[in-house]
Amino acid sequence: MLRLSLFLSASALFAVSCAYSGSSEPEDPQVGWVSFETRPGPFCGRCDSLKLTVFYDQHVLVEQGYWRGDYEDWQVSNRLVKVSPTALSNFLDRLAPHRPKDILVLREESQCESFWTDHPEVFVLWRDAKGYSQLHYNYGCDRELRQQLAEALSSAPRLLEITGLENPAD
After folding, report:
1. How much helix, strand and coil, in percent to the nearest 5, is found in the chain?
2. Considering only Cβ atoms within 10 Å of each terminal Cβ, which end of the chain, N or C, has fewer?
């Protein structure tokens, strides 16, 4: 059910971005979005999740969720906030060096030189004039080798300066 929800959210974002720009490829550098989603590791006790849909017009859709080990008690809150131009720029600049040309998946043992289980994951999607990119990263994948990537991903949400934001990857 959660995967279906995520698929529908991504589909809705794609439709919104296409409608917003009038085509399937945004041409205006001000039109676009970044979806930043954290997921807890498999043994998390109270499991927190965070999804930020950061639009280039400074609006951010914040979805925070948690559950205490039983899918029946999943709690989700949604809100729309506006961030400052500086906060938006800092967030985008922090992620930019780690944006792949298309898709980069580093979330399973077979994709990593070293892999520690039970770590949270982050999924980042970019959709803008540069195209569409995806980064899927498990914090247990090559932790020492990919320290800069892990630090950039865990610190990026704080750069938006959104009050009450809890990042489970911290």
Report:
1. 30, 30, 35
2. N
Which option is the CATH number for 2-160: 2.60.40, 1.10.3470, 3.30.2310, 3.30.1560? 3.30.1560
Percent over 70 (pLDDT), the chain: 72
- Delimit the domains of the chain by residue range: 2-160
* Opening angle at CA 136, ends 36 and 106, nearest 5: 150
Q: What is the 3-state secondary structure (H, E, C) of 132-155?
A: EEEEEEECCECCCCCHHHHHHHHH
How far apart CA 77 and CA 97 sit, in angstroms, is 31
Q: What percent of the chain has pLDDT over 90?
A: 44
Q: pLDDT at residue 16 above 70?
A: no
pLDDT for residue 44: 67
